[in-house]
Structure formats: C-alpha cells, structure tokens
C-alpha cells in the first residue's frame, strides 16, 4: 500500500540533528529520508517549514517569513512543503513585506499548505495577528497545519498549543481547513472532540513517540499508553480526517508506520495512510503525477 507521510522535517535545526543522532538513530539528510521512503513505500512527504537564525534558538523569534526546508539547497522532488509562519514579524512596518513573501511562496507548486507553530510562538491561533494568513490560505485553497500539544522546547508555552484553541479558530474560519498536529497529545480527547465537532478540522498522528526501536517497543507494549490514543480515535470516530505522519527525524519511518498500524483499525489504513492526505492537501495529486 502506498503511503503519504504528511509531517516530516528537513530544516537545519540543532534539536532535530541531536535527536536524529542520539535518539532515533536516523540519517538526517535528504538522501537518508529518501532511503527510508523507498524502503517503506512512501511515495511523497510534506515537510514542515521552520528555520533558526542562531544555533539552538528554535523557536527563533527572528526567523523571516516564510520559514522553509533549509537543510538542503532546494525542496527534493519527493517532498512538498508547508510554509512556516513567524507571527512575531506580522506586526508593524515589516508586516506587509512579510505577508508578500508568504504569498509569493504559496504560488510555488511544491507548496502544500501553511504551518503555524502554536505554543512555540506565544500567540493564540484565533488572534487577529494570524487573520491575514488565513485569508491567504482561503485565497490559495490550501490547509493550515497547526502544532498542538507538548512542545519540543522548554521555551514553548502550552496554553497556546492546547487543541481546544483550534475550536474557536475553526468556528471563525469555516472556509479554511485546519489540521491539528500530534492529535493534541497529551490532550488527545480534547483534540478528538474538536475534530468530531468541526467538519473543517483534521488531525495527524505524528510525533506521538520519539526514539529508536527499543524506545518504541517499550511504549507499544504498554496497554495504558496505546489506549490513551485508541480511546480518542474511537471517540472521534472520524478516521476519514485522521492522517499519517511521522515527525521524522524524531523516529524512523518504518517503525512509526508499525506503531500507527497498531493504533488504527485495519479497515481504515488506506484512508489514514494515503487517501485522507489527498483530500486535505489539494496539490498533492499533481505533485505525485510529476514524480
């Protein structure tokens, strides 16, 4: 079965490099990613744009918009990109210039959507600072992907990344589709309710475990841990709006796919691993046709 991994990273971020070396033991390069894709029948991935201007500064308040995939010189043909947004620069005199750069990037065929780093940047997703970004999403017909749940940095603030904040946003912006990353973990029941209530909200299952096989085995063999996510999936009962993602390089792709296969009932695998991605990201089909 072909797979689309809708949540990977390919940016020059120090914490990602350290995780790849010390925890997940993956080759954090485009070549390393392609090798994992080929081994696991992944035909396309979507990279979440993010940059840091100073080593170890993620989330970097000085990163210019739009943030992209800067580990390599260009986006590899087997990837698409969600352009990352730094809301700290969307005020004052530079705001128009920042938004113009975001809009110019959205016109590129390899761009699949927009990524907000809620929690990392200290703004609620329903704040007016993001309104011009949602207007661009509606204009170009692309979804907005939102980090929710725990932050991979102690400098994040969890009140901004709680999945319930997406409920108010989804109500305000019915013309835009949103994807809750990481199923809002640890608030997975809250995220499940936001998906169930709002037809314009999806969720991905990325980043729920970080590390190599021994680490995964410990959690996959712990019923309480697995039931934490299964309960939310059963409650939401909207497998047509759940998507497979790995958060690579935080975990090897094949290992993460094994984990998600254990979580999701087999009759929903084709939707979660492939079909739902095409439904949420309209530009995917053309990109696949070009491969």
Low-confidence stretches: none
**Overall geometry:** globular
- Helix percent band: 25-40%
How many strand units? 8
- Tell me the structural class: alpha/beta
Rg from Cα: 17 Å
Which strand order does the major sheet show?
1-2-3-4-5-6-7-8
Number of helices: 11
Largest sheet: 8 strands, parallel
Order of helices and strands: EHHEEHEHEHEHEHHEHHH
Distance between the termini: 17 Å
Question: Quaternary state, please?
Answer: single chain
Average residue pLDDT: 97
* Strand coverage percent: 5-15%
Domain Amidohydrolase-related: 96-282
Keywords: Lyase
Protein name: Amidohydrolase
InterPro entries: ACMSD (IPR032465), Amidohydro-rel (IPR006680), Metal_Hydrolase (IPR032466)
Write a structural description.
There is one protein chain. By secondary structure, this protein is of the alpha/beta class. Helix content is 39%, strand content 13%. The chain is built from eleven helices and eight strands. An eight-stranded parallel beta sheet has the order 1-2-3-4-5-6-7-8, sandwiched between helices. Helix 3 links the parallel strand 3 and strand 4 (111-116). Helix 6 runs parallel beside helix 8 (223-236). The longest helix is centred in the last third of the chain and has 14 residues, at 223-236. The radius of gyration is 17 Å and the shape is globular. The model has no long low-confidence stretch (mean pLDDT 97).
